[in-house]
Amino acid sequence: MTTADSEAKKPGIGAHLGGNLRENGMVLALLAIVLFFLIMVRATQGVDFLSAQNITNLFLQNSYVIIMALGMLLVIVSGHIDLSVGSVAAFTGAVSAVLTVKWGWPFWAVIPATLVMGGLIGAAQGYWIAFWRIPSFIVTLAGMLVFRGLTLWLLQGQNIGPFPKAFQSLSTGFIPDVFGAGKPNMTALVMVGLAAAAIVWSGLRGRRQDAAFGVEPEPAGLFWARNLIVVAALLFVGWKLAQFRGLPNVLIVMSVLIVLYSFFTEQTTTGRRIYALGGNEKAARLSGIKTDRLVFLTFVNMGVLAALAGMIVTARLNSATPKAGVGFELDVIAAVFIGGASMSGGSGRIIGVVVGALIMGVMNNGMSIMGIGIDYQQVIKGLVLLAAVIFDVYNRNKQG
Amino acid sequence: MTAILEMRGIGKSFPGVRALDQVNLTVEPGEIHAICGENGAGKSTLMKVLSGVYPHGSYDGDILYEGHATAFRDIRDSERQGIIIIHQELALVPQLSVAENMFLGNEVAHRGVIDWKRTWARTRELLAKVGLSEAPTTPVEKLGVGKQQLIEIAKALAKDVRLLILDEPTAALQENDSAKLLDLMLELKAQGVTQIIISHKLNEIRRVADRVTVIRDGSTVSTLDRAEITEERIIRDMVGRDMAHRYPDRVPDIGEVLMRVQDWTVWHPDQPRKVIDRVSFQVRRGEIVGIAGLMGSGRTELAMSLFGRSYGRDITGTAELGGKPADLSTVGRAIDAGLAYVTEDRKALGLILEEPIQRNISLANLAGVALNGVLSPGREQGVAERYRRDLRIRTPGVNQRVVNLSGGNQQKVVLAKWLFTDPQVLILDEPTRGIDVGAKFEIYALMNELVAQGRGVVMISSEMPELLGMCDRIHVMNEGRFVGELTRADASQERIMALILQSEGKAA
Question: Is A269 in contact with B388 (Cβ distance < 8 A)?
């Protein structure tokens, strides 16, 4: 190959914007939606959409969607779907309630026991999907009915609660301020500051690596602009939270999981294999990848995360109810697709999914505050999902 | 008489490859016109341009049909004008009946309600024209490939065809089915249907064609009249050089046995019959061993069953690699034992098309670009760059998605993937299928390099000249058995065919 060839097609800023258009566009869309509600909520209700309390609420309300969406991304990347997560979350939440309230188990025994339960449920479904090749749509549709039914049976149609404080803190607790009680909450500020620094540092490290390996790096202006927006948003949220009660426990759990899953999907061989399997299962199998086992494990993982989400929801409501988690699967799946995953598997990123879930969450929250009826809310959310996917397909076709 | 079809200066580009450039084709009314050319020469692309699969505007040049310039937007446009193309891959819906397929999209109906009586009657009429007497309600999947091919033609007749294009119609057919099809072509010609046939099989062309146009590397080389049609002339025009220089030279340096397979027997995954029957062979260091055979003789099944039991069931027999019994029970173990299998179907089985080059190259040996399960993007990039240089993969960068590469470059990516696993023995299944002549030569040179490094190569190919040009020994396979072995010195196309024909029907 001649140098002339390689020079001719060097990707420029346009290519970078195009290549990352999806993610940059998503972040901008999220900011635009937040801005829209900031203005509209003030205008119609006369309250601050970005008040400390409402930001805290946003995270508490959406944590379980984000947590389940992490697992759902893996399932969808591998070319499958899991419709049962709402029912599984309800069932595992009910199990944790029975263990805690009826059997009197301490929270440190209930949490791992419930997670194992979720893993077993995931394994039971994944077994048929992975090794018997029953379509995941069917298996998990069955699972959706089965575990909803088991929830009703277990709870005998009643709510179980309330929970001891220790269990509730899983969802409604806050990180205590180790630097002394006061406002602003110093612990929160320090942690958010560290997180912001870590994001910029890892971004710079990536750029250095790109340079070292001769990959055309993202133009510096674009890089700094994007980091500036992200860090500013992060510090703003941190500052607001510090004014209120500090960082919610669930926010920490969620953040740790997001970092872990980002690392897993992008930096590990196992993560890579899941993408390969979703991209072309036969080629992956003929490359020595144990595709069946990987599919099985993505469903086990999904079950564990659904159980975690189930406990968080139960703790937040302070009771296990037969109706918990109805329709969660739709929010979770919508978040993954808004976040840019492909319906046919093989592509999608954790960060996109998180932003996708936040877009859905902010819209839910904003529309509720504005007093928009549940009827219109559903219509609007549906249209947003459709628009995001159309935008995707349109872009892909344009790239050829 | 004026030409029924005239294509002038046709050009067509895809990302990364100029598929057609300055192609001219003139077809007279009522003739059978053959188009010859190597795989990847652009024959199928040309027919897709003609039939509107690639719409007007997406190619250069002019098409005159029955004296008028055409501007087909899609295949329906061309069908309305009586141009019908029958593709290599049959376009029948296997679950639907013969009659339903025959009138698919063209139903005999009144206000959307199908008139079954008339449909069946018309179907019987059309079937009779192509020499079939099947019930119109038979599901197409119950019929053999030969009959399916005839049904495609009947379907074309239903649409009042004036120019029938057959793209390698006999590629998947047995000898007697092929003969029937060629007879039918002559019969249609007598009825005045102009036909274009794309074929590799020179004896068939001699039998039916009035004229031949030869295409090479996307351009017209020559148009031959019936008197000029000889095998030598067509081959010379097709390859553009003498047969002698199509294959790079190699002085064999053959060492000890690397791989030995004994009594390998494989059963069909869901039918009670043997697909591979007691096959034994060995591959030595520095040796290229060919496997010749017709389509369906079991060559790919043999390779896939060896490679981690990726095909068949109840596999028996033993395999040794490097003098030790080899565990080939999973693909991972086969790779560890030093075996690699380059599939015949690189798009479906070899590549993840939407992923970039470097991710495809590392796929079979991710541990080689990772530390404790954590990937090193730098190492991965470095490996990909090395293979891009060594194999001369033509691309702006290794982060390009492989879907945008030409066939030859895609094949190099697949080869790079397997070279990165450092195999002792590579099984190459149709390694030059669908790639252009220049890239073929490069693949051949690469094979020579691999054996020079002390590896062994098993080459499966349907193109006999390629086997004769490359291999030290050739096993001839038919009906799941090895029916003969020829050394380089005494191998020839005739002897290979003779071994196949002599063994026909002798399977236990």
Answer: no
Every domain of chain B and the residues it spans: 5-243, 244-338+423-508, 353-421
Give pLDDT tens digits for B341-396: 999 889 899 999 999 999 999 999 999 999 999 998 888 999 999 999 999 888 88
Q: CATH second-level architecture of B244-338+423-508?
A: 3-Layer(aba) Sandwich (3.40)
Cβ within 8 Å, pair A279-B352: yes
A269 and B399 in contact by Cβ < 8 A? no
List the B17-27 sheet strands across, edge first.
B17-27, B5-14, B60-65, B68-69
What is the pLDDT, as a whole number, of residue A399?
58
Q: Can you spell out the DSSP letters for A121-152?
A: HHHHHHHHHHHS---HHHHHHHHHHHHHHHHH
**CB-defined contacts A:B, below 8 A:** 98
Question: What is residue A188's predicted lDDT score, i.e. its pLDDT?
Answer: 86
Q: Which two tokens stand for residue B48?
A: 């897709």
What is the chain A residue with the closest CA to B333? A288
**pLDDT for B505 beyond 80:** no
| Position B217 confidence tier, pLDDT thresholds 50, 70, 90 | confident
- Is residue B281 pLDDT above 50, yes or no? yes
Q: Do A276 and B396 touch (CB under 8 A)?
A: no
Across the strands, what pairs with A271?
none
Contacts of A347 in chain B (CB under 8 A): 354
pLDDT value of position A263: 93
**Angstrom distance (rounded) from CA A316 to CA A301:** 23
pTM: 0.82
Tell me the per-residue pLDDT of A209-222, one tens digit each, with 9 for 90 and over: 777 766 667 788 88
Burial of B224 (0-12, 13-18, 19+ CB in 10 A): buried
Bridge-based pairing state of the strands B194-198 and B32-36: parallel
Q: Which residues of B touch A280 (CB under 8 A)?
A: 348-349, 351-353
Q: What is the pLDDT of residue B16?
A: 61
pLDDT of residue B506: 56
Domains and CATH numbers, chain A: 26-34+49-173+248-399 (1.10.3470)
Element (H, E) at B233: helix B231-239
CA A222 to CA B68: how far, in whole Å?
Answer: 54
Chain A hits for B331, Cβ within 8 Å? 285-289
Residue of B nearest to A342 (CA): B354
The partner residue sitting opposite B349, judged by closest CB among A215, A267, A282, is A282
**B393 chain-A contacts, CB cut-off 8 A:** 1
- Give the closest of A10, A280, A288 to B352, CB-based: A280
Domains B5-243 and B244-338+423-508 share a fold: yes
* Residue numbers in chain A where pLDDT is lower than 50: 1-18, 400
CATH number given to B5-243: 3.40.50.300
Q: Is B282 helix (H, G, I), strand (E, B) or coil?
A: strand
Q: Residue B39: which pLDDT band, with cuts at 50, 70 and 90?
A: low
Relative orientation angle of helices A21-45 and A350-369, to the nearest 10 degrees: 10
Burial A171-192 (b: 16+ CB within 10 A, else e): bbbbbebeeeeeebbbbbbebb
User: Which residues of chain B neighbour A289 with C-beta distances below 8 Å?
Assistant: 331-332, 363
Choosing among B358, B363, B383, which should be mutated to test the A contact, i.e. which has the most A CBs within 10 A? B363
Residues of chain A with Cβ-Cβ distance to B375 below 8 Å are 267-269, 272
Taking CA–CA distances from A209, the nearest residue in chain B reads: B378
The ipTM, to two decimals, is 0.85
